[in-house]
Amino acid sequence: MRKFPEPIQIATAALNRLPGVGPKTALRYVYALVKRPAKELETIAQAIKALAHLKVCEKCFTYSNDSICEYCSNPARDKRLLCVVSEPRDIATIESTGEYKGLYFVLGGVLNPIDGQTVEMLRIKELEALLAKSEIISEIILAFSPNIHGETTILFLTKLLNNLNKKTSRLATGLPMGAELEYADEVTLMNAIKGRTKI
Ligand SMILES: [Zn+2]
Question: Is residue 1 part of a domain?
Answer without folding.
Answer: no
